[in-house]
Specification:
With about 170 residues, the chain is mostly beta strands. About 0% of the residues lie in helices and about 50% in strands. The N and C termini lie far apart (about 40 Å).
Length: about 170
């Protein structure tokens, strides 16, 4: 068995393996810094050199409560994070760029913190988010807009998970 380490210049809070079959050892990581100076990074493992290398990095205002690649590789590599907003990132030509910043409160600059999210495994255009404000929001990533929002609990909603049926999800809170 082998063990390899990557030591980023920040404490790692979240991570997710890429679904890109051409890059089986690509990993997205996010930081946990108690200031508004957090990071999101993409790293690759090179089997020939047995080492990780930084592919791209971007700033993230608050610690990402979750980080996850899209369930299947579309024309671009999409990555999402939640914290104050749902952020959609695009990895293209060695650069991690913000594709969208989506608020679960229409017309408001600030929104309640998002605690988690999940990509729909059967329809990678759909993401569900959950929030401390008791809501779950279903997003259309292609249109970059809210499809629907529902009050899911009497208190905070901490997690959401899609089933293998594209219209069914579960929440915890």
């Amino acid at each position: 068995k082998e063990m390899h380490c990557f030591n980023p210049p920040f404490p790692v809070y979240g991570m997710d393996w890429s679904n890109d079959k051409e890059k089986p050892f690509r990993l997205a990581v996010s930081s946990f810094i108690r200031k508004s100076e957090n990071r999101v990074a993409v790293i690759d493992f090179n089997e020939k050199t047995s080492s990780f290398s930084l592919v791209a990095e971007a700033s993230h205002a608050y610690p990402a409560t979750k980080i996850q690649w899209s369930p299947e590789k579309v024309s671009e590599q999409l990555l999402a994070t939640t914290s104050d907003f749902l952020r959609i990132w695009e990895l293209k030509e060695g650069r991690l760029a913000t594709k969208a910043v989506l608020s679960n409160k229409k017309g408001e600059i600030a929104s309640a913190p998002l605690t988690s999210f999940d990509w729909n495994p059967k329809n990678c255009q759909i993401i569900g988010t959950c929030s401390v404000d008791t809501t779950c929001t279903i997003w259309d990533v292609e249109a970059m807009q809210m499809r629907t929002q529902l009050i899911a609990h009497d208190k905070e909603v901490f997690d959401i998970a899609w089933s293998n049926r594209p219209e069914v999800f579960a929440t915890a809170g």
